[in-house]
């Protein structure tokens, strides 16, 4: 009975350690080090798309979310102002000529359907039911790397991934609204951060 009580705690501790080890392996640069960054007053924002296997490997290991229909975009915020900023009502969309895609909540990725590959050969059925294949978009790396900051203190940096159910299009931008000053409640001007290098 005692082991049954300790088992969930051990599993949670192991998952936390694995997530911490995975987090250590991925580092991003300063906002100014990216060619596609923008200043919104004293808030610096960089957006980086991750498409190829070489780009996604440091963040997600063997999983490339693009193969399952999701474009991961890393957003990095650097607050150089003397105000704390509220990010709890921030809205982030991926815009390209003629369309707009909202970010998919990280908790919904595990329930997404990957694009189906057409069957080209004969179909063989097993005489008994086989276990279902786990959805690769349920990987813990997608959850731990997702953007989760609700406030940004003065002098601090926050970063994380947003996942968009689209492929990358030329001249696409990340459109950000809803960032507010904590003391006044005043909303900052919107930001359009280009994803392609100028």
Share of helix, binned: 10-25%
How many structural domains does the protein architecture include? 1
Order of helices and strands: HEEHEEEEHEEEEE
Read across the widest sheet, the strand sequence of neighbours is 1-2-3-8-6-5-9-11
Query: Are there runs of 5+ residues with pLDDT below 50, and where?
Result: 17-23
Oligomeric state: single chain
The overall strand count is 11
Give the N-terminus to C-terminus distance in angstroms: 62 Å
CATH domain class name: Mainly Beta
Name of the CATH superfamily:
Gamma-adaptin ear (GAE) domain
Q: Biggest β-sheet: count, sense, barrel?
A: 8 strands, antiparallel
The rounded Rg comes to: 20 Å
Mean pLDDT metric: 85
Number of helices: 3
Can you describe what's shown?
With 198 residues, this protein is of the alpha+beta class. It has one domain: Gamma-adaptin ear (GAE) domain (Immunoglobulin-like, Sandwich), CATH 2.60.40. Helix content is 19%, strand content 28%. It has three helices and eleven strands; from the N terminus they run αββαββββαβββββ. The chain has an eight-stranded antiparallel β-sheet, with no helix packed on it. About 4% of the residues have low confidence.
